[in-house]
């Protein structure tokens, strides 16, 4: 089999099934549309992917720690509504810290229930998904919020600004990815997250404070949501109550596409970034080719499943499971 | 969920009042789709209660399904049990509510459907529908687009959530009328914006990459329209581009005032709520009510916007 030989020939390449798939798709799309790889389009897709991307970084840490976070979608609605609403009431320099603190509190609730009370993360965060959406509706009374003076506020920098010609969302995404990558791969804390996700029992016996580590992963996830909300609020200059609805699935799709195991203990930030970019480029490429939306849904999920399959197949060196 | 508690309290109060009230008062129960999810529905509920309060002969029981089909079905059963004189329903799902509407019909309680119509199979069980005409809104938008472009140009369309009746009808009205009225306006592509401003902004950014010449943008509502406008402004291409929406939102109204947005269709939740109550009262008064009662949703443009209040949503 090709893959067997691939593995025998270069185990390093075989482990990068996602990267191979990513490059393949980029080639196909660039042949189909001459604008696909134009500088403008690449920059535009990178900028578009930043919101989902930043959230995916946090969720990756949670998933490596052996848990799930489905509450990020409504947490994004909460954080965006809050920061946009407070922007005109107390000014951006106060609105941002208040929103970050409130969002961290939500993350702390997740972390407490899952880390210290050891409740199932699927149930807790699914519950929080609805509970937080309810909270948003109570807060806003169902009204959309908007920033009145859109051109006069420095808040616009996060979503619409640029540094040296590179859009700010891209820079925020890249910096945050770098920081979390370093934390996860080079610090004791990162190793503890992998250990807790890989084998919770063994990690406890090794003296790792499992509850505190899990708690911290949810704080990181909430912090990422807060950053995403700043980008979103600044880019749109307003917010609907349900603006983040469904984002949790896109985020999870990117994390899975990046090859992070839902069982915990393995995965990488860099590969999540690849997953995020791949999803963003697929959606962009299909619109550039003039494909209708249902094709996009179909192709996106087909790609996710094929990519995950290729990844698993590359790791085990054969296309089908040895134990069928 | 404070609002729901308030309306439940209002409900019990209404029931208590209804017992004490004289025999001439009519009791009307309303089960709404999802109050609090957006400003439109929030304002609708407020306007409905105000309109009912203003009429001494009406007692209302105000319920909200919270977007949950099962809850709405049981609310329908409750209202039938309470033997209200009429039921107004804003269906959470046009198809799934047909049996519940049929039960009310069999119990001899007239049902008025408000805002979004029930599936065709249920039409024989309702007394009347009251709400906006989405197809007409699409038609108005097409006429404005045609006028703004002088009958010639290239446009793109950002639609609402795929599969939603409102999105489909607004697109259908627009597409048909545009083809008929000005065949020289070419639609380059149609893609969804999912009623989400950020999503619409992304869709428009891709359109801007793909097409060098875009003269106009039609959006399923102003929320998405402003997302598209933001994308065009960011790309430095908004100058001379015509933006038209199928429902006017406050953000669209403001953009219109700044001269960045050409026009939209004005749909007032207050008119919507009043029309629903009036239709129910007409039905109860034994008047000959047409099956489909559309309230007027006029065109709003930069020229006539002074005649309209800034939308509440």
Major β-sheet of chain B, in short?
6 strands, parallel
By CATH, the topology of chain A is ABC transporter involved in vitamin B12 uptake, BtuC
Which percent bin holds the helix content of chain B? 40-55%
Number of domains of chain A: 1
The global form of chain B is: elongated
Strand % of chain A is under 5%
Mean pLDDT of chain B: 89
**Assembly annotation:** heterodimer
Q: What class, by secondary structure content of chain B?
A: alpha/beta
Tell me the count of domains of chain B: 2
- Number of beta strands of chain B: 12
How would you summarize the topology of this molecule?
The complex is a heterodimer of chains A (324) and B (313).
Chain A: H1 2-9, H2 11-14, H3 17-32, H4 39-64, H5 72-90, H6 92-116, H7 121-140, E1 145-146, H8 157-160, E2 162-163, E3 166-167, H9 168-186, H10 188-198, H11 200-205, H12 210-236, E4 238-239, H13 247-257, H14 269-288, H15 293-316
Antiparallel strand pairs in A: 1-4, 2-3
Chain B: H1 2-20, E1 26-32, H2 39-53, E2 58-64, H3 69-81, E3 86-89, H4 98-106, E4 111-114, E5 128-131, H5 134-149, E6 153-159, H6 165-181, E7 185-192, H7 197-210, E8 216-219, H8 222-234, E9 242-245, H9 250-257, E10 263-265, H10 269-284, E11 292-294, E12 299-301
Parallel strand pairs in B: 1-2, 1-3, 3-4, 4-5, 5-11, 6-7, 6-8, 8-9
Antiparallel strand pairs in B: 10-12
């Amino acid at each position: 089999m090709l893959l067997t030989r691939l593995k025998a020939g270069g185990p390093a390449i075989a482990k990068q099934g996602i990267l191979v798939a990513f490059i393949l798709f980029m080639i196909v799309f660039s042949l189909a549309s001459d604008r696909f790889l134009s500088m403008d389009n690449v920059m535009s897709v990178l900028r578009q992917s930043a919101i989902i991307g930043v959230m995916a970084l946090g969720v990756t840490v949670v998933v490596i720690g052996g848990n799930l976070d489905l509450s990020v979608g409504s947490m994004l609605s909460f954080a965006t509504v809050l920061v946009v609403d407070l922007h005109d009431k107390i000014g951006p320099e106060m609105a941002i810290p208040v929103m970050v603190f409130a969002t961290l509190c939500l993350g702390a609730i997740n972390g407490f229930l899952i880390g210290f009370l050891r409740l199932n993360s699927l149930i807790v965060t699914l519950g929080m998904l609805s509970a937080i959406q309810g909270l948003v509706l109570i807060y806003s009374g169902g009204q959309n919020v908007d920033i009145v003076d859109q051109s006069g506020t420095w808040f616009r920098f996060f979503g619409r600004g640029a540094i040296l010609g590179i859009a700010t969302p891209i820079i925020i995404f890249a910096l945050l990815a770098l920081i979390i990558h370093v934390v996860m791969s080079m610090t004791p804390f990162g190793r503890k997250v992998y250990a807790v996700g890989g084998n919770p029992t063994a990690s406890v016996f090794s003296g790792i404070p499992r509850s505190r580590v899990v708690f911290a992963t949810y704080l990181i996830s909430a912090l990422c949501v807060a950053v995403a909300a700043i980008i979103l609020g600044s880019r749109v200059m307003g917010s609907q109550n349900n603006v983040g609805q469904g984002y949790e699935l896109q985020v999870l799709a990117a994390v899975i596409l990046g090859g992070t195991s839902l069982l915990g203990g393995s995965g990488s930030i860099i590969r999540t970034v690849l997953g995020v970019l791949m999803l963003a480029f697929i959606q962009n490429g299909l619109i550039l080719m003039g494909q209708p939306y249902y094709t996009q849904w179909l192709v996106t999920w087909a790609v996710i499943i094929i990519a995950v399959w290729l990844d698993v197949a590359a790791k085990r060196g054969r296309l089908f499971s040895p134990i069928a | 969920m404070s609002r729901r508690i308030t309306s439940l309290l209002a409900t019990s109060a209404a029931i208590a009042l209804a017992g004490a009230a004289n025999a001439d008062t009519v009791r009307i129960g309303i089960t709404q789709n999802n109050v609090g999810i957006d400003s439109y529905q929030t304002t609708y509920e407020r306007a409905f209660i105000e309109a009912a309060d203003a009429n001494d002969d009406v007692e209302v029981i105000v319920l909200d399904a919270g977007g949950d089909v099962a809850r709405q079905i049981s609310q329908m059963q409750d209202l039938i049990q309470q033997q209200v004189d009429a039921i107004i329903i804003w269906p959470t799902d046009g198809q799934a509510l047909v049996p519940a509407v049929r039960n009310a019909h069999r119990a001899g309680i007239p049902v008025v459907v408000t805002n979004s119509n029930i599936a065709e199979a249920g039409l024989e069980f309702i007394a009347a529908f009251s709400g906006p005409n989405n197809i007409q809104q699409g038609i108005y938008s097409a006429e404005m687009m045609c006028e703004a472009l002088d009958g010639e140009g290239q446009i793109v369309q950002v639609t609402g959530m795929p599969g939603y009746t409102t999105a489909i009808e607004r697109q259908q009205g627009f597409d048909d009328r545009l083809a008929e009225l000005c065949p020289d306006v070419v639609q380059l592509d149609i893609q969804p914006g999912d009623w989400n401003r950020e999503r619409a902004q992304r869709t428009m950014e891709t359109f801007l990459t793909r097409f060098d010449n875009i003269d106009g943008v039609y959006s399923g509502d102003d929320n998405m329209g402003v997302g598209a406008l933001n994308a065009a402004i960011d790309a430095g291409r908004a100058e001379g581009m015509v933006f038209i929406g199928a429902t006017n939102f406050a953000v669209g109204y403001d953009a219109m005032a700044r001269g960045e947005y050409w026009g939209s269709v004005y749909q007032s939740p207050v008119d919507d709520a009043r029309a629903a109550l009036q239709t129910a009262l007409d039905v109860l008064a034994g008047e000959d009510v047409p099956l489909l009662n559309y309230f007027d949703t006029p065109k709003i443009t930069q020229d006539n916007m002074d005649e309209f209040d800034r939308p509440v949503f």
